[in-house]
Design a protein that fits this description.
The protein is of the alpha+beta class. It contains nine helices and five strands; from the N terminus they run αααββαααβββααα. It has two domains: 143 residues, 2-Layer Sandwich (Beta-Lactamase), CATH 3.30.450.20; 84 residues, no CATH class.
């Protein structure tokens, strides 16, 4: 393996999520060679691969094989655009331009295409790789599958939206009754405060991040209702 290849491999390894651990290893064991670095990259669960400045894939680990479905023989020397749908290929062009300027792209969330044609949501970190003389020769990429996380977020958002709509319907009913039973804007505000305090307190007593978000959403709705009461006074 040439010194240039070893340098490139070292940079790929140092840009993967275990970068801090790897740096400590290199400091403690300066004799660590390219073979060990290759094994570290190869054993990562994340997809780690590299491209040259023309967007040609130059390396591909097992994590990338699991993530995208292509073997190393199927992708090395092929354009990285094979992983990107036509409507997103402008992203790769912009990324390579930034890499040529020596810039880093960290935790960029996007969508890539698997061998079977399906889409996968990933968090992408891209870093420039350099020659021993300091010239940019390509980019190392770390792709992490975030599909499950995205699905969980969407479920939480839908649930919170449903709960907020239900809460707002209740608040509207309470507001309408308060208006019917009160003569002034001050009385409306007092009745709303009294009647809305109990449901909001009940929500806040529950534990869990999602319920705290729902509580904040309900408080925001309360403020909107109270502001409506102020408008009535005008």
């Amino acid at each position: 393996m040439s010194s240039q290849q070893e340098s490139a491999l070292s940079q790929i390894a140092e840009n993967y999520p275990g970068e801090l651990l790897l740096r400590r290893l290199l400091r403690r064991r300066p004799h660590v060679n390219a073979a060990l670095l290759a094994s570290i990259v190869e054993s990562s669960d994340d997809g780690i691969y590299s491209v040259d400045l023309n967007g040609i894939i130059t390396s591909w680990n097992k994590g990338a094989e699991r993530l995208f479905g292509y073997t190393v023989d199927e992708v090395v020397t092929k354009p990285v655009m094979m992983l990107i749908s036509p409507d997103r290929q402008h992203q790769e062009i912009a990324i390579l331009e930034r890499i040529k300027r020596g810039e880093h792209i960290r935790h960029y969330e996007t969508v890539r295409r698997r061998k079977d044609g399906s889409s996968v949501e990933i968090s992408l970190t891209v870093s420039p790789m350099y020659t021993p003389k300091g010239n940019v020769l390509g980019a190392s990429k770390v792709a992490r599958d975030i599909s499950d996380r995205k699905k969980s977020q969407q479920l939480i958002i839908r649930e919170l939206s449903h709960r907020t709509q239900n809460l707002f319907a209740v608040f509207q009913a309470i507001a309408a009754r308060a208006v019917d039973e009160s003569k002034t804007a001050a009385e409306i505000k007092y009745v709303l405060n009294e009647r809305l305090h109990a449901p909001c307190a009940g929500v806040s007593s529950n534990s869990g991040g999602g319920k705290r978000i729902a509580y904040r959403a309900s408080r925001a709705t309360v403020r909107r209702v109270l502001q409506a009461g102020e408008v009535l006074r005008l």
